[in-house]
Amino acid sequence: MEPISFVFADRATVPGFLGLDVQSEVIGRILEVKPDRILLVCDETVDLLHGQYFAPLLNGGAASAGAGDNFHGENLPPVNKYVLPSGDAAKSWDHLSKLMEWGFDCGATKKSMVVAFGGGALMNVAGLWASIFYRGTKLIYVPTTLLAMHDVTTSLKTSICSQGRKNNIGSYYAPIAILIDVAFCRTLPRPELFSGLGELAKNAALLGGKHAEGFRTALSSDRINAEHGGSGDEFAMDDTMLMQLLALGIDAKMSVLATDAYEKTSGMIFEYGHTVSHAIEKAYGDGVVPHGLGVAYGMLSSSYAAEQLGLMTPEARQEHDELCWLLLKRWPLPHPRPSVETVMALAMKDSKRGITSENEDEISDVLLRSMGDVVPTSTSMLSKFPCRYVAEWLEDIGFPTEGGKVGALWRGECVVVVVVLLLLLLLLLLLWSFLTCFFSFFKLLWLLFLLLLLLLLLLLLLWLLWLLLLLMLLLSFYLILPKKGSTVATNYFWLTIALVIVWEILATV
């Protein structure tokens, strides 16, 4: 395994190791810590695909192929395994609470160690648990997805989701080691591998240079092909390319977080695209849109806003968006899509809201002038801008508006009304023909006169009701008027004027 140093400013320096097919080395590094108990936390998918990876540690079981017999004996610490649901479903108060109870029930002590074995969501919740269990328990990350390997491991953030918001509860906590076996990527389904590539696209846009060039080369290469692999849902990329992309991804984040461990200032740039991304992911529902792909779409919304604000030229935006579409053309958003209003309501609940003191019609995200050129602000790397730019972009790429749906429904209802009126007219003509067969012309005129008289009486009744309503409004206005500057009084006044105008128009017609 190749050593990698994860430096988080003066907060922590975490030893890391990167390799391919390095099961024995991973287990050996874990045992070097000499915990009194190992608390292995994984998710259902990882347990199904890689449940035997730590077999040499579990109940003295036989090692899987390539692990050897180095880890058998009486000196092995006891291992307890807990399986969480896959994806963001694990990031809840309920599962965090159950982890707490399980840890105590296992007999874990302050000398025990948590091994988070899974993707980004699993590492988020297991990391948060380790950070508060006995006020901080030893933690080792063993990531199994491309996204977790280069993006989650390179951050001290841990989190769960609450009240329909994304990552709004969490802490900053450093593991004691990060152990990366790239072999896990061979079993990743296509959306998961794309998710990891989405965050790499973000790094490429933020830093430009070798990161952008490396990403373009990888995504344009013949060595990346959705047709390869064991099943149609798999996405093949050779091991050498994966290692290169991982090295680029880790280098990108560490180059910034080495001076901003808590991602409050310069490190905030890695929130690029996440405001709209989190909203889209939540609007679709957990697990429908992989996180990294949501980020790539969020980047497109931010580039649109930057161009509308005059910060990004059309040429710079085209270069930026082409980088995103290298990935997104392979994975379009599914249909039916949530409404613009739904996405915007969720975006307004983003966990970063308030940092830039947005107004109620503003939203914030990182903005770029061009690839590698971030727009700085006085307090952070976040810029605030009108919400309408995001709404316009969502409409442009095919998200429906609730108003549009209502309009379409209204047009359909109009057609129905016209058809009904035509049928009524036809029925009246038939009725007239029928009556003329039995009544004289003068009798018909008498019937019409009676109908007109009834109509006039109804109009008189409506007029009296109108006068009563008008008097009530004027009385209310009179009662409220003494309160100077009353908004309610002003509203009553203009409502009265509007009703009078409407009535006069109707009376004239």
UniProtKB/TrEMBL annotation:
Q: Which InterPro entries match?
A: Dehydroquinate_synthase, DHQS/DOIS_N, DHQS_C
Q: Which residues cross the membrane?
A: 113-134, 415-442, 448-481, 488-506
- Annotated GO MF terms: 3-dehydroquinate synthase activity; metal ion binding
Q: Which UniProt keywords apply?
A: Membrane, Metal-binding, NAD, Transmembrane, Transmembrane helix
The source's superkingdom equals: Eukaryota
Query: Per the record, a Pfam family?
Result: DHQ_synthase
Look up the record and name the cofactor or cofactors this protein needs: Co(2+); NAD(+)
Q: Which residues form the 3-dehydroquinate synthase N-terminal domain?
A: 82-193
Instruction: Name the PANTHER family on file.
Output: 3-DEHYDROQUINATE SYNTHASE (PTHR43622:SF1)
Q: What is this protein called in UniProt?
A: 3-dehydroquinate synthase domain-containing protein
| Organism encoding this protein | Polarella glacialis (Dinoflagellate)
